[in-house]
Prior knowledge:
Layout: H1 15-32, E1 37-42, E2 46-53, H2 56-68, H3 78-88, E3 94-99, H4 107-116, E4 118-125, E5 137-141, E6 148-152, H5 156-180, E7 183-188, H6 194-208
Parallel strand pairs: 3-4, 4-7
Antiparallel strand pairs: 1-2, 5-6
Amino acid sequence: DISASGRFGSGEQTKQELAAEVSAALAFAAQGNNDKIGLTLFSDRVEKYVRPGKGKRHVLRLVRDILHHTPAHRTGDLRHALQHLQKTFRRRAVMVVISDFLDPLPHSALHRAQRRHDVVAIQINDPHEDALPPLGRLVLEDAETGEQVTVDVSDPAFRAAFERDVAETRAFRERQFRKTRVDVIEITTDHPYADRLMRFFRQRAKRFR
Length: 209
């Protein structure tokens, strides 16, 4: 997911940078396992697609595309990417979707993709998207729409309402993932991800065995 919401980061790394790092790690892991791996970069449409291939040169090409592609659009819509991959892949594949999933999940498209393929969601979060620090009056801007709003984040009632809304949205998204039987792992910009990622895939492998 290369939509503009990925540019946010409250620490040393933005969500987009972390997503790129995780993508590269998965690509090299696939190479080590002699698997084919492809790439789809999407905003509110598919902006770049690279057919699955093998070998170090192919993986380096994917990493280069991930790092150097300039998004043409700001908003995000997973539906178009899933529909594109549904048409492209007739044989069963593992689809790893890396996104912050802030846009509404396309439930029907996700369900159809999961019925044919093995869909895994890697959700990239930043801690300040869940809880606002008490910094006084701030101008907040939606990265995708450009809409701005002035808020007083020193107000405990406002922060509590914000956290309640985030929690409700998160719970709704988790229910949608469960309904579509999509495995999801959450990683954050303020914690190392390698151990969590390896543990997640080891547990999946054990479950499938």
